[in-house]
Specification:
Immunoglobulin-like, alpha/beta, eight-stranded parallel β-barrel, globular, TIM Barrel
Length: about 525
Amino acid sequence: MKRYVPLILILFIVPPLVFLALWARSGLWPDAPDVPDASNTLAPTATGGAQTGIPTPEQETQAEATVTPSTESDSEPTIAPPDPIPAQASTDHPTVHVDLDNIIGAGPRYYGVEYSWTDQDEALFIERYRILGANTVRVQLTQDLFEPVNDNDDPNHSEIDFSITAEYDAAQNKTLTYERMLKALIEAFPDMHFHINMWLAARWNAAEPEGYMGLGGAFPPRDYAEHREFVRETARWLVDACGIPPEQISFSFVNEPNLPAFFVGTGDDLMRMAAESRAALDEISPSIQMGGLDEVHGTSWTEEFAQAQSPHCCDMWTFHAYEHGLTEMENTLQQRIGRLRPYGPVWVTEFADTRFGSPDARMDLSGRDAAIGLASMLGRIWPAGIDGVAHFRLSDTYVDRLGGWVGHGLFADRHGTRSGGVAFEPYPSFWVFSNLYNEFGGGSILHTSAPAELSVFAVRHESGDPSRAAIWLTNPTANNLAIMLSISALPDEARITVLDNLAGRDPFHTETVSGPSLAFETILPPHSSYSIIIH
């Protein structure tokens, strides 16, 4: 359930959605044409769009370009945005209701990704982080990389070299320097939070020298003084050398302790590791947070640890989830959040549907199906009282020592292994996270009601001028779903934009409305996801 380092980001335009919306407000529209037969509602135009409702992204683009018949072919029809049709025309659809005046809770404070990086592509990675809109970067560190042999016999005097450069893809001269990456990220994003996962021990100080994939040893440490030195000096390096404020750092002191590839000790060993790690961090700053346990396949270890009432942990309770199938994933995520919430803030720092590959570095998230699954999962957990969400990882990578392609990413590796040879090609999944983080991050959760098969939530942002709200609307099913979307407590005048969550950051439709409420019919196509932004 772990993999090797990086992750990156890029943009990918997916096939345009078929989004039918019939806008209506009392007194807003003039007399409307007759409502078409239901059997014609999804009839495609010559360009693959729909005959009624909000135009598709493709229709919007073409409508702006021309509203007259094409001169290239007499048979091509005129392409123009369709007329709105009153919502009262059909009232038998299930309703999605959003009350903009009913805040029911807080959304996640921390949202981001596991890092990806190569020194030679620094500008590209910085831009991808910027487009993603994350406020948190998770960084897995293994002691074996920085201290493969004991630096000296005095744990109070460190000679660990954190400035080393790791070779990734020798054939293309690609390298990773953690210090360069962290300095660049904190300079570009001064408010970024950095969550450090203490992944593996050094072999020379591990209870089991051969840990996960031979990349280090399994905890607990044999010599706690030496372990305390590494934790302390890692924190010192982050603060002093990389320039990250202590209050923007958190550590997970162990990774997946219920798997012997990472931990072979007892509950008492976990308690001691937490105590020793907390003491080491306090030597640098008590403001550095600490979390645990990054448990996978359940929460029993974490619950038992939390019930022991350790004074040393935790500021957040972290977990991982890898299950087969969307329904199983969504149920698992919600159950584990619910089980851990009584103990404090909860973070999910790794999660993926194993239909798309192995958690052991072979997860292929390049396709549209994977993106829709993520959109649905995120729509379920974002309003569920979770405090932190981190996707593993930003980009696919190509790592010599791991045998080539390493997956889990939101865009392609430098070889374009899953993108037809196009380097750094963005996947639809990238846009799912980008729209989510940019439009919903930092918002307060609003009361919504929706059919169970849809993944729906909404937020309101109080800061900014003007304030805004956003609705996340995902249909993960294989069916067209006709709904009535009802929005109450609107401002006197509002501008509404619609984004395809699999296609990019640019809205494909904009509408200005006035009055206290809005209702519109929409037919959600199979496997589709949208953000509706209200300004």
